[in-house]
Hints:
There is one protein chain. With 367 residues, the protein is an all-beta fold. It has a single domain, classed as YVTN repeat-like/Quinoprotein amine dehydrogenase (Methylamine Dehydrogenase, Chain H, 7 Propeller). It is built from one helix and 28 strands. The protein has one helix spanning 77-81, and strands at 22-23, 47-52, 62-67, 72-74, 90-97, 100-106, 110-114, 132-138, 141-146, 160-165, 170-176, 181-187, 190-195, 200-205, 211-215, 219-225, 231-236, 245-250, 255-261, 273-275, 281-286, 293-299, 304-312, 315-320, 327-331, 340-344, 350-355, 360-366. The strands form seven sheets. It has a five-stranded antiparallel β-sheet with strand order 1-28-2-3-4, with no helix packed on it. β3 (62-67) and β4 form a beta hairpin. The protein starts with 21 loop residues before the first strand and ends with a strand.
Amino acid sequence: MYAKNSFFDWSNKALWSLALLTALGLSACSDDNNDQPKQEINEEISGAYFLNFGSYDKGGSSITRYDFRKDALTNNYFEAQNPQMTIKSNIQYGAVYKDTIYLMGNSADELISVDLQFKPTGNAVREGIEKPRFFVGQGDYLYISCWGKDADFQEMPGSYIAIYNTKTRKVEDKIALPGGPEGLALANGKLYAALNYRPQVAVIDLNSEAIDYIDMPAVSAYFVNDADDNLYLALSSYDPTAETGLAYINTTTDELEDNYVLQGVSTTYASILTANSDASTLYLVAAVWGEPGSIFAFDTQTGEFSEFIDNLNGVNGIEINPFNKDIYVLQSGNVTEAGSVSIYNAEGAHQKDLNIGISPYWTLFLD
């Protein structure tokens, strides 16, 4: 059973259910798989799932399912799948790894695993997980960025990477990493960690756990891997004079090769950076708090930004549906009222709006 203030309020035991194929993502870009045999659609899980953070330490976190093929929206989807259970934690981030959805829960701090129908696969893990932020997976392990128990939100001396074994369901090791690791990426056999409270990127040798650093012109948030396994990285700052934008890291030399400046990159802890299927175009959110924001498209061949969608209120993030290439813009005016998703086609023409949960941050795509 869960602890009293754990992620779920249990009134009965959840059952395992079988599920099929998933596609997700920021930490590992989804492909259209045009050269692969067409997969049969699993109608029980097919759709976009919006992870609504809610209001920190006050609840309100929820899951919204949007079956884009049937144009059917289901708010409070977790409760619909699990009668008499409710979400207790705030969902900071979530992603699919090996047919399991892992959710980073804050307040209470925990790692939650559910199957592809959002039914719990076991008790949430709390030991060794303190203020979890983001994760990537490799083999039997998840690497989870954590801010630590006593985060000071200035230098973050107690932050770390938790190494979680998906088979034993335990945190087996921690790699101390001051500076507030946020987004993570795996490339060329190394783990890269964006530091949100220090203008550096940490490069971790997963065999020796030795750490090197790459200096950045600003603090960083999230990565996108390109076709050559090099990394683009969103740079943001509360300092309006900082050189925010996109950094480009050569993962062979571990050097900052380019810095493409774009002022006002969003500081929101959400899906502010994404890419199309071949990472030829990246999309980045630029939004100053309290002012309308914009989505900028970045052409990786020319190295130039162009404004793609403008005059967006309360924009949190952007996601691309890998199955139909629609673009979803996640928005919320405040942390107490329902958020929304505005859907655009690949050319940026507005299609429709959806009313969803409070503070939508991330999206999972299942099929």
